Structure formats: structure tokens, C-alpha cells
């Protein structure tokens, strides 16, 4: 069992033997209450590559003080962290399974090892308001850090620092205003905000950390520079969405699908920009797999929102309540299963390999000569590949199918339409990265139109399949099926309209 809270604190560097500033009169602080010193002993853990440090995450096992246990801290800024606590375990040499599970993505599925041991003698001063309620806590720390890697120096590193932590429930903006006032008082005694606010970061100074060995950005004006910048943003969005999905929090499934599809589009369309090798090839496959499962989840979300109702009020009046409830139950179950499929994918090796490739592309870019050219030149190569591929897939999607049965024809129609939709969406997203300054604007616009049309057609075909399945179940149960027919007719109309628009779009690609 764990608990999570928001930690808002600022760390100050104070000279050895220096006096603490007088903080009375700042931010409602009326008096102070000093406590006896006590000792803390913490061992910090990370992967061999220091994946957690790179992700601004720390995990430690700490004894001593009021909050002994396992702690995970995720930093969103120098002063704001989300801290998760787990009970202290007897085995100091093994990370509990619950902690490992909570860190699965940040550690990239790798095992953890001790990297730093930090011993702290802490003297706490409670900062109180006029009612005796605590405003903040000041911790004056004497710190001794010992690296645990093979190249560690013989002597530990020592320093003094002061942490001021705001009590829970205070608005972050109010907290930052208080910190601004505190800065002045600390400056008056020759102290200031710490250049490095993390004890772990100070303790690790000089450690061989592969994830922290970043390379220079590619030159401005090159395709490589554009790709690195875009992939950095997409990686950040993906990690936020992944964390929400894994924890069961509300997630915009359509946005998650678009993020995954754009990553797949970039790795596919711009594959020559990245080094040859199986690692990148597997990452491309992982991106394709993630795009596929998130697309199914986004489609399921759409059906929950839209399928139970017709597109016009007059048609909607003809759908009875039982039909609507049956459809809603069926689409919700489909969405739940789709989300479970996404979460299962997030726990698999292909997803971790994709994250490794994104880390390398963003943190240690090694652009090829092809990628060091201008976006306009690269766009010529990419466009020459995308245009015929999209044209053929769209042509297959709108062609007449010759299968023997209606069911086979419908299944084939859905398959070819989905393939064309994926291709046009990927093409549009890949072109968006470099923009229509690089790609011909007319081509960019026509492929975008085809993507929009095929999106509507894919939705309509899946809606029809769902309606037919549920109508058949209702008929076997002796229920009326008129409402299903109304909704199906509405969807047939939308599918046929999108078919005609798709044919028109094909002729312009």
C-alpha cells in the first residue's frame, strides 16, 4: 500500500558554520519551534544506465525520521515534486515488487541497483503562524554521500544544505511567493538557492551515467534538428499518457492514439534519418504496434460517444431507450477491452524498445547524412515514397470487392479502408513535421482531406458492424430491432457519403 502527496520545497546552500536567517515576519510566519537533531540513512537506487535520474525520478530506502520507508519522487520542477511512499521492508538489498511496478516505465523495465548512500544529520525548525499552525518546515542538513559504483572515490562527499518545505494543501503559487521572500532573507546571510537541489544529483557527481551523456543538437536548418525537436515533444506526451493509462486515470484516448501514430509516422517515413540496425527496426515495429492498439481504443471511445445517437434529432427520436442502453453497454465493454489491450502493450518489450530508441534519438542524436540535408530536399524523397503508397491503398479501399458473401465483403471493406486510413493519417502527420514549406501545399492538403474522409468511413463501417452484431443478439432475445435499423441507416448514409468523397480525394492525390 502506498500514499502520494505533493512536495513543494526549495533547497538553499549555506556555508559551514553559517547562521540561519531570521524568517519571522515572512508569509505569515510569526514564530519558530526548534527540534532536536536526528539521523537519516538513505540508499538510492537506479538502473545501470541511470534511467531514473534521466527521467527526473528518484527512488530510495530511508531509515530514521518520521517517514522511514521506500520513497519515489517525480520532479516537475526544481521546487515541486510528487512523492509516493511505500512501507519500509526488512530486506535492505531488494526493491519491493510494488515499487518496481510503479517505476516500470521510467526504469525501462530494467532492474535496479544501489548507486548512492546518503547519511544526513537533520535539525528541523517548524515555522508557525499566529494560531500556532505550521506554515512550513525548515530542515538544516549536514550531508555525507558515498557513491556505490566501481569508480567511486574513496572519500564521501560532504556538504550543508537547508530545505524549506511548505505544508500540504498550500497553493503552489502562494508557495512560490513565499520562496521569493525567503530568498531575500537567505541572501542576507550569504546563502542562496542551491545550484543542484537534489541530494542524489550531488551525490552522483562524476558517476559514469550513460543516460546523462547527451550529444549536441543537430545544426539548425537541418531535417535532423526538426525531427529531434518533434520527437522530444512526442516522447514527453507519450510518457504522460502512458502514466495515466497505467494508473487507470482518465485519458484522452484519441490524443494518445494521435501521439502514437505520429511517432510511428516519423520513424517510418524518416527511417533513413536514423542509424541502421536491428534496434531501430524493432522500435519501428513497436511504434506500429502501439499505433494499432491505441487506434482501436480511440475508435472504441468514439463509438461510446456517438453510436447510441443518430446524427439528426428526427432520427434520434425513433431510437428506444432499451436499444440505446444495449448499444451503450456493448460499446463501453469494447472500450474497456481496448484499454486493457493498450495497457498490456505498455508492459511489453516492444514498448520498452521503442522508448529506448526515442531516448537515443532525443538525448544522443546521431543523424545520418540524409537527415543533415534541408527539409525541402528530404521532403522530395519522402513525398516520392508516400504519394504512390497512399494512392494505391486509397484505390484499394474504394474498389469493388468480389468476395462471395456479404459478410466477407464487409470484412474486406473494413480491412482495406483501415489500411488506407492508416496510410493517409501517417502521411499527413509525417508531412506536418516538416510543414508545407517543405512539401507542396496542394499535396499536403489533398492527403489531409483523404485522411479526414477515410477517418469518417472507418468509424461508420465499425459502427455498422457493431449495430448488426447487437441487432442480431436483440432479435434472438425477442427484442425489437427497429432502433438498430434507424441507427444503421444513418451510418450507411455517412459511409456512402465518405465513399464518394474518398473517390474524389483519390483522384486528387
In words, what does this structure look like?
This protein is 51% helix and 17% strand. It is built from 14 helices and ten strands. The protein has an eight-stranded antiparallel β-barrel with strand order 1-6-5-4-3-7-8-9. The two termini are 56 Å apart. With 509 residues, it is of the alpha+beta class. It has helices at residues 51-54, 97-102, 172-188, 199-203, 223-247, 253-269, 278-306, 313-316, 321-346, 349-363, 375-398, 406-434, 441-476, 482-506; strands at residues 3-13, 31-34, 38-46, 57-63, 69-75, 80-86, 113-128, 134-147, 157-166, 192-193. β5 and β6 (80-86) form a beta hairpin. The longest helix is centred in the last third of the chain and has 36 residues, at 441-476.
Q: Strand order across the biggest sheet?
A: 1-6-5-4-3-7-8-9
Distance between the termini: 56 Å
Overall morphology: elongated
Helical proportion, percent range: 40-55%
Mean pLDDT: 89
Structural class designation: alpha+beta
Radius of gyration over all CA atoms, rounded: 29 Å
Put the structure in a nutshell.
With 509 residues, the chain is an alpha+beta fold. 51% of the residues lie in helices and 17% in strands. It has helices at 51-54, 97-102, 172-188, 199-203, 223-247, 253-269, 278-306, 313-316, 321-346, 349-363, 375-398, 406-434, 441-476, 482-506; strands at residues 3-13, 31-34, 38-46, 57-63, 69-75, 80-86, 113-128, 134-147, 157-166, 192-193.
Amino acid at each position: 500500500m502506498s500514499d502520494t502527496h505533493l512536495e513543494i520545497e526549495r533547497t538553499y546552500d549555506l556555508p559551514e558554520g553559517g547562521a540561519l536567517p531570521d524568517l519571522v515576519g515572512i508569509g505569515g510566519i510569526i514564530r519558530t519551534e526548534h527540534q532536536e537533531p536526528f539521523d537519516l540513512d538513505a540508499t538510492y537506487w537506479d538502473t545501470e544506465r541511470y534511467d531514473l535520474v534521466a527521467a527526473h525520478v528518484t527512488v530510495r530506502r530511508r531509515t530514521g525520521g518520521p517517514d522511514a520507508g521506500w520513497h519515489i519522487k517525480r520532479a516537475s520542477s526544481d521546487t515541486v515534486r510528487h512523492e509516493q511512499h511505500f512501507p519500509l521492508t526488512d530486506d535492505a538489498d531488494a526493491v519491493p515488487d510494488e515499487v518496481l511496478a510503479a517505476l516500470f516505465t521510467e526504469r525501462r523495465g530494467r532492474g535496479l541497483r544501489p548507486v548512492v548512500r546518503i547519511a544526513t544529520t537533520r535539525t528541523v525548525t517548524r515555522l508557525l503562524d499566529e494560531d500556532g499552525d505550521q506554515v512550513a518546515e525548515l530542515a538544516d542538513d549536514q550531508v555525507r554521500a558515498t557513491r556505490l559504483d566501481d569508480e567511486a572515490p574513496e572519500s564521501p562527499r560532504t556538504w550543508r544544505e537547508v530545505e524549506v518545505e511548505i505544508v500540504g494543501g498550500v497553493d503552489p503559487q502562494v508557495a512560490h511567493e513565499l520562496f521569493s521572500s525567503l530568498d531575500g532573507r537567505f541572501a542576507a546571510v550569504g546563502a542562496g538557492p542551491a545550484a543542484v537541489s537534489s541530494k542524489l544529483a550531488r551525490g552522483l557527481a562524476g558517476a559514469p551515467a550513460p543516460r546523462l551523456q547527451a550529444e549536441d543538437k543537430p545544426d539548425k536548418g537541418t531535417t535532423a534538428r526538426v525531427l529531434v525537436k518533434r520527437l522530444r515533444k512526442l516522447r514527453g506526451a507519450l510518457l504522460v499518457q502512458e502514466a495515466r493509462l497505467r494508473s487507470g486515470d482518465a485519458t484522452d484516448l484519441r490524443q494518445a492514439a494521435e501521439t502514437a501514430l505520429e511517432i510511428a509516422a516519423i520513424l517510418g517515413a524518416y527511417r533513413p534519418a536514423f542509424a541502421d540496425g536491428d534496434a531501430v527496426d524493432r522500435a519501428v515495429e513497436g511504434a506500429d504496434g502501439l499505433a494499432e492498439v491505441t487506434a482501436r481504443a480511440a475508435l472504441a471511445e468514439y463509438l461510446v460517444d456517438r453510436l447510441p445517437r443518430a446524427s439528426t434529432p428526427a432520427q434520434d427520436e425513433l431510437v428506444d431507450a432499451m436499444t440505446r442502453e444495449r448499444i451503450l453497454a456493448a460499446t463501453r465493454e469494447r472500450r474497456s477491452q481496448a484499454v486493457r489491450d493498450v495497457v498490456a502493450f505498455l508492459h511489453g518489450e516492444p514498448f520498452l524498445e521503442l522508448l529506448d530508441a526515442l531516448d537515443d534519438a532525443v538525448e544522443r542524436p546521431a543523424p545520418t547524412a540524409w537527415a543533415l540535408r534541408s527539409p525541402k530536399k528530404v521532403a522530395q524523397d519522402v513525398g516520392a515514397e508516400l504519394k504512390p503508397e497512399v494512392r494505391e491503398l486509397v484505390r484499394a479501399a474504394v474498389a469493388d470487392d468480389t468476395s462471395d458473401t456479404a459478410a466477407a465483403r464487409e470484412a474486406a471493406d473494413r480491412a482495406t479502408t483501415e489500411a488506407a486510413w492508416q496510410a493517409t493519417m501517417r502521411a499527413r502527420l509525417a508531412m506536418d513535421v516538416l510543414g508545407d514549406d517543405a512539401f507542396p501545399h496542394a499535396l499536403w492538403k489533398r492527403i489531409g482531406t483523404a485522411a479526414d474522409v477515410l477517418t469518417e468511413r472507418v468509424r461508420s463501417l465499425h459502427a455498422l458492424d457493431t449495430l448488426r452484431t447487437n441487432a442480431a443478439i436483440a432479435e434472438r432475445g425477442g427484442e425489437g430491432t427497429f432502433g438498430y435499423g434507424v441507427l444503421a441507416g444513418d451510418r450507411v448514409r455517412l459511409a456512402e457519403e465518405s465513399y464518394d468523397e474518398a473517390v474524389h480525394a483519390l483522384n486528387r492525390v
